[in-house]
Write a structure and sequence with these properties.
Radius of gyration: 26 Å
Number of domains: 1
Helix content: 25-40%
Strand order of the largest sheet: 7-8-9-10-11-1-2-3-4-5-6-12
Number of helices: 8
Structural class: alpha+beta
Largest sheet: 12 strands, mixed
Shape: globular
Length: 356
């Protein structure tokens, strides 16, 4: 699903504005702070969060490729195909625009059938507006500066998540921010806009219809329109962004931070593993007078009267995304499948055909 989502995101975001001129650029994202970064030290395999995530977007004629060291996705607007390449597995898959349309319609039909079955069984899902708890606001700070020779303007996007129903009355609202330095122009973008609109028109017949959505779920359509209008206040291309994800946790000297909790959990897990190993060995020796046997005495109650909880805001994650390596020439080989790679079935088609 993550790969399918990436395909759609790149196609409908980049495909609508960057598919004719010849140019390339690189986006690099680095995690620079937050409790999740501290926790990663005590999670097996968590060290990968510290590694910069880099991908390059290159456009040549009617083709666009988005790639990193592990994968690539090539869109050919003239041939109306999307090719996903996996460099590690040395394999690739292809889906045409027509096949994508069929897959999306099949997935919609599967969802409608599932909803009809639930309704017939009296288990219809409640009509919840997933956007109702979100609030997005864009602030033009008026600040300007040059970044990599580009004139940029500063916007701060604030995303608030309201407390769910039944939450404590004093629970703080969770806020995250995106501090963006945006340039109004980027080499190559002016020349490709018209072609991007033409490409978008090819996909319009199976993209989500806001008119139908407004008739079936006017609450969701209203929320989506409000968010879209607010985001339209920020025009241009982000060159340098700082994303800060925040959350709330109980406050007080006795409440450990997320990083301390992870460290203590890892330590406790190691200690319990040692104790279990000792008990296992003693058990094989018959207990040695009770030493390896668990006590039958019931645990003493440590329940205390509940206390009023106060909350504090904490930073879960801070990351920086930077646009670099702007170039007016691209490597044509990046648009081709490497020799010897095996073709496999596209994941989106596989998912759509799963219950056919």
């Amino acid at each position: 699903m993550r790969r399918i989502s990436t395909m759609l995101l790149v196609f409908f975001v980049f495909g609508a504005s960057a598919l004719r001129a010849e140019f390339s650029y690189t986006r690099t994202t680095r995690v620079t702070g937050g409790s999740l970064l501290n926790m990663s030290r005590f999670i097996p395999g968590g060290g990968g969060i510290k590694e910069p995530q880099t991908h390059t977007v290159a456009v040549k004629g009617a083709k666009m490729v988005t790639y990193d060291k592990d994968t690539a996705m090539v869109i050919d607007a003239d041939a109306e195909t999307m090719t996903q390449i996996d460099f590690k597995k040395k394999q690739y898959s292809v889906i045409t625009f027509a096949e994508m349309k069929q897959a999306i319609l099949a997935l919609r039909q599967q969802m409608e059938q599932m909803q009809a079955q639930l309704k017939a069984q009296g288990q219809e899902l409640p009509a919840i507006n997933p956007l109702d708890s979100f609030k997005v606001s864009v602030n033009d700070t008026g600040q300007t500066k040059q970044i990599s020779g580009l004139d940029t303007k500063n916007y701060v996007v604030t995303m608030e998540i309201n407390s769910p129903p039944g939450a404590p009355p004093n629970l703080l609202t969770s806020k995250s921010t995106m501090d963006s330095w945006v340039t109004p122009k980027l080499p190559g973008y002016d020349e490709v806009s018209q072609f991007g609109l033409k490409l978008a028109s090819k996909m319009s017949d199976f993209m989500p219809d806001m008119g139908n959505l407004g008739m079936s779920r006017p609450d969701i359509a209203k929320s989506a329109n409000e968010m879209s209008k607010e985001m339209a206040k920020m025009s241009g291309i982000p060159v340098y962004e700082t994303f800060t994800m925040r959350a709330v946790q109980p406050a007080g000297p006795s409440v450990p931070s997320l990083g301390d909790a992870a460290k203590e959990g890892a330590k406790q897990g190691a200690e319990e593993g040692t104790r279990d190993a000792v008990r296992s060995r003693l058990g094989r020796l018959g207990g040695l007078g009770g030493l390896g046997r668990k006590s039958d005495d019931p645990p003493k109650s440590t329940q205390q009267a509940p206390k009023e909880v106060t909350w504090q805001e904490v930073t879960l994650l801070e990351q920086v995304t930077e646009l670099t390596n702007l170039s007016s020439t691209v490597d044509a080989s990046k648009f081709e499948v490497p020799a010897g790679f095996k073709q496999v079935e596209n994941e989106m088609k596989k998912l759509a055909n799963r219950k056919q």
